[in-house]
Specification:
With about 170 residues, the chain is α+β, with helices and mostly antiparallel strands. The protein contains 7 helices and 4 strands, in the order βαβββαααααα. Strands 1, 2, 3 and 4 form a 4-stranded antiparallel sheet that branches. The chain starts with a strand and ends with a helix.
């Protein structure tokens, strides 16, 4: 939890209050005039909103087995090198590594699956962001590649995109 202070004109205050409540979970806004009386000071207690990613069980409910996906990504890496199915390759690879990392986390294993899953997710985010894909390509869900939540939790972005992609298959 943290405190935000904004100094603005009285006419800007409603828009700023609305923007803050859209970006954070906020308490009541306290408003006081500045010493010069021309502007107002807004004080609001806020906290980060939790990400609203699909649960792994939901995102991967229709996913092929991990063994099957390992085979697909091995074959897909060849096609990816030749420019075919690049996004699908990175999406499925990132989802595969996320699933392996989740399994490791459930069993208390410490390995390199989690950092590899994050790196693959970042690669997918970079690919989506640089491609400038529209609503039909990415983010039929709430978060675009450049959204702060996507940057903060790249594996969540993969789950969102995988759930959307597999739903269209």
């Amino acid at each position: 939890m943290f405190e935000i202070r904004v100094i603005c004109t009285p006419t800007e205050a409603p828009d700023i209050t609305k923007a803050l409540s859209g970006a954070f979970t906020t308490g009541p806004v306290r408003q006081h005039p500045t010493r010069d009386g021309d502007r107002v000071r807004l004080y609001v207690t806020a906290e980060q909103q939790p990400g609203h990613w699909p649960a792994p069980e939901t995102a991967y409910a229709k996913a092929p087995s991990i063994i099957s996906e390992i085979g697909w990504t091995a074959r897909g890496s060849r096609d990816c090198l030749h420019g075919f199915q690049v996004r699908e390759f990175w999406l499925r690879k990132a989802a595969l590594l996320d699933r392996i990392a989740l399994d490791d986390e459930r069993h208390g294993a410490t390995g390199d699956a989690a950092p590899l899953a994050v790196e693959a997710a970042r690669r997918l985010i970079e690919l989506d962001d640089s491609a400038g894909l529209g609503p039909s390509g990415y983010a039929d869900g709430p978060y675009t590649p450049d959204h702060p939540e996507s940057v903060r939790d790249p594996r969540g972005y993969v789950r969102q995109e995988y759930a959307i992609w597999v739903g269209k298959q």
